[in-house]
Sequence to fold (700 residues):
Amino acid sequence: MPEEQAIKVEFFGPFRDFGKEAVVPANQPVSFDQLVAALVGQLGEPFEERARKSNTTLIVNNRIISPRRRDEVEINPGDKVSFALLLGGG
Amino acid sequence: MKGYAGKFLRVDMTTGEVRADVLSEDVARRFVGGYGFVGHTLYNEVPEGADALSPENVLCLWTGPVAGTTIPVSSKYIMGARSPATGFIGFGIASGGVGSELKAAGWDGMVIKGKAPTLKYLYIQNGNVELRDAIPYAGKTTWETEELIREELCDDEVRVSSCGPAGELMTCLANVTNDRNRQVGRSGMGAVMGSKNLKAIAVRGTGSVEVANLDELVEFSRDLYKRCRGPATEKYRLYGTPANVLVHNRLGCLPTNNFQKGTFDHAEMVSGERMLETLVKKVVACPSCPIGCDHINVVKDGPWAGTVSSVDYESLELLGPNCGVDDLNAITKAVELCDTLGIDTISAGVTISWAMEAYEKGLITSEDVDGLDLRFGNAEAMVEATRRMCLREGNLGALIADGAARAAEKVGQGSEKFAMVNKKLEWGAYSLRSLQTATLGFATSVRGACYLRSGSYQPDVKGTVDRYHLDRSRGKYVFDGENLYAIIDSLIICKFTRGIYKDNDEIAKILRLVTGFDITAEEMIKTGERIHNQAKLFNVKFGVGRGDDYPPDRAFEEKMYDDVNDGAIIIRDEYDEALSGYYEERRWNEEGIPTRELLEDLGLDTKLGV
Fold:
């Protein structure tokens, strides 16, 4: 699939239970909800619960999206998205 | 006085005299405990000009009011002294059981001066305190010392803090270890112990701590324990701090090859995920901790088979990617060497990566590094360099044992520009040019490059600010973080629990329930400001100035290119402006010196103010 028609997703931490990465076909911008719905279609219902936990960190193109702004984010075809746990100190 | 034992020990190593002193309520109210007491003690008791490794320096150990209570993860203690690494205030906070054991023995802390004629250890068993012969433990590792002292005392429950051979050698980076895997890591407190001929402090207490409002404290603690098992701490429970590796790599802030880059091609090989899958054999928690962040690695095969150590993010990152090393077994071995021989892993990693860069650039020769092939990525050389550094062995050990700044002073030829230090203390595992608010916080930290004084990486990684630029407003983030962390480090509670508190008033509530002090959240933060300024005043006493609050030259002079960053650099004018903004927020002058008006307002000594 050409890169410009897909969103590349990678998983860190407990999201690795669903694999290391996934590709979501997309030819127009999608919301966080739409992205999660597409991933649930590939990975199963448990992904939804995991993704919506309060400590989920969403990274879009190397930038962390604040949980408060997650509903506003627009993810474009060609973007790289990561699901991880809340980042804290070392 | 509730929450405090109300007394502390004064130990004169020169004469062997040990006596009790009273902790005043005024000091407790104004400085809370832990970090606050360290600043207060050192400012008042270390004579001007006292060398850090001389008998005149003061080594103090303090608990906070919550140690030994039902508050989760509250068993910590802090050690402080004038740092041999920086020349300014030095201190480190360790988890494990020493803090709560000392409170149970009936002591809030101790102040140690002088130098014993021969190697000693301090044994505290409730009210009985004595200096005992430690000559049989000379040269022993920290783990051996713990076990041997327990054997000698026929008591498995004695808690022991000890320095390793590196401390006895007074290496500037020497740390102090307790409970095998817990360290007073940074700024050379092990060297100060060594300079006083103090090998260890062994504590056993059977008493309890009286608090102001037990019923409500127990109820609140129950709630906090539940929250500690919730989402805010999941990362620490599942993976420990190494969960940061892949996320930091994705964000381009994973220091690689001595901070030359912010991404590591082999990050997956050294990730927390891989470590959990291949090496972690056990998860350990401190007393009163429901989280359990301490993941113990056991190496099963290869040249380092049988190695056991607890590897956290900073150690893993700086001995791993920052040295170009992608071998988790080697990193586990290097951490074991640091913990047992007694050197701070952060400083070790940054100093070895400096040596690797200097070697690759031809600034130090094969003879200087004892024939090691000290190139980035050579895991065996990294491990051997760690061992030599800890024991000050050979040419390489002699060159790097006291850290990157001092090694660079010896080598010169521009190598000072890539010694990744502030105030001669090595930088934590956060890339400077891609986390610029963090850089301001690290560089203005009173103990030298430190991620634990303000948590100033948070606005960068959370996307609250443009992390590739600085402006005058950034000082406010550092100011707020420092004041809050000063309280957390004075109570002393674990920073890994900071996410479980709904607001600052819940932290003030702890203080109210434990001590009975009628304190609001606002007053508590003001107390944090006082504590921070007291520590700063110690540095002023020893000559700190604006020039000490800058990151290394690499941040300003070399653009960073990697998979994420496309020429990231700190613009010097922006940094100057951000630094001035921070000073303004703090009510310090342009040289970073507190004003008399501020010191009066905080009830601190105004003598050094401007």
About this structure: Chain B has 24 helices and 19 strands. The radius of gyration of chain B is 22 Å. Residues 7-204 of chain B form a domain with the Aldehyde Ferredoxin Oxidoreductase;  A, domain 1 fold (CATH 3.60.9.10).
